[in-house]
Amino acid sequence: FTMPSPLSSPVGSTRQEQPSFKPEEEKMPSMAELVEQVAQMRKQNEQVEKRLLKNESEVQSFRSAS
User: Fold this and answer.
1) What backbone torsions phi and psi does residue 52 show, to the nearest 5 degrees?
2) Would residue 57 count as lying in a domain?
3) Which of 54, 47, 25, 51 is nearest to 39 (CA)?
4) 29 Cβ partners below 8 Å, 6+ apart?
5) Is residue 29 domain-resident?
6) What sign does the dihedral 20-21-22-23 (CA atoms) show?
7) Number of domains the chain is built from
8) What is the C-alpha to C-alpha distance for residues 13 and 41, in angstroms, rounded to an integer?
């Protein structure tokens, strides 16, 4: 066998990572922070969509004018 079996390799890697992963878990963002991030992303998306719609309407008015 030159390739490690797919079952044994992930188990070994996760077992090694666990001690270093546990302290990081405490630093993970809280639900409130995640909710705020999502809200900010939604706001940005809305702004982008509005800009696209504005561009579209401008293009359409330009086409109808010509």
Assistant:
1) -65, -45
2) yes
3) 47
4) 37
5) yes
6) positive
7) 1
8) 33
1 within a domain of the structure (yes/no): no
Let me know: does 37 contact 29? Beta carbons within 8 Å. Answer: yes
CA angle 14, 17, 23 (to 5 degrees): 130
Token couple for 32:
């409130």
Q: Quote the domain boundaries for residue 51.
A: 8-65
- Asked whether residue 56 is domain-assigned, the answer is yes
Helix (H, G, I), strand (E, B) or coil at 59: helix
> What is the rounded CA–CA span in Å between residue 38 and residue 51?
20
Helix (H, G, I), strand (E, B) or coil at 22: helix
pLDDT tens per residue, range 15-63? 555 555 555 556 677 889 999 999 999 999 999 999 999 999 999 998 8
In the prediction, which pLDDT does 66 show? 74
